[in-house]
Amino acid sequence: MSVKQDRNFDDLIDRFESRIYDTVKGSWRLQLLQEDLQPFADGSPIEIWDAGCGQGQISLWLAGFGHQLTLCDLSSKMLDKARANFASAGLDASFHHQSAQSMAIQLGDFDLVLCHAVLEWLADPLVSIEAISDKVRPGGYLSLLFYNRNAMVYGNVLRGGWRLKPILEDSYLGKGHKLTPPNPQYPHELIAAMQSLGFELRAHTGIRVFHDYMSKEARENSDMDVLFELEKRYCRLPAYRDMGRYVHLLWQKTSDSSQH
Question: What is the pTM of this model?
């Protein structure tokens, strides 16, 4: 019997750069995350752990405000990119070639933990997020960005054809392209899990609530600046935010959550 493993992106780093990081979609994601995390940009220096840092864009932005960053990633190539980005900016951080779950065992507590686009690639997302969120000190924060299972279902049904039956049979996970995550998460399930761990929700944002449902022709006929203004207007309204390709949840750990 094969054992499920977490996804390592050493073999896909070039595709990540061209398909995600260097695109309008990636830029929008970054901007909306920065809006939700703006209070940390304006505050006094804190300790931050980026659990599954990728190329470290958000960490780099936060480090620019004087915060102390610890970064880890399962992919050595992603980590090398993050290290190079920090070096180019003349900023320091602690870099570790290690999975977030194994790293958690060795770490102390942090004021802010980032877990961005990680859960959906893990073999056991809910067990992993419990280990990761345990490193948030009481009163601290967890920034959780994940690939939304609602969007995967809705997008596939809208495209119709052969995609309908796997959705109906709930057999569609892990069947897509290499950049399609095998374990997308339902927002309501993650929210319930985090609340049971003693966290309170402080921000809830959908990332790309319109763009990814538009046809190629519709996108080509649209002004991307106007579309992004629409994204920003609707991304935090309940009906739309839960349909975003990604969902960002900013959690605060309540003082008694250590009892969980």
Answer: 0.89
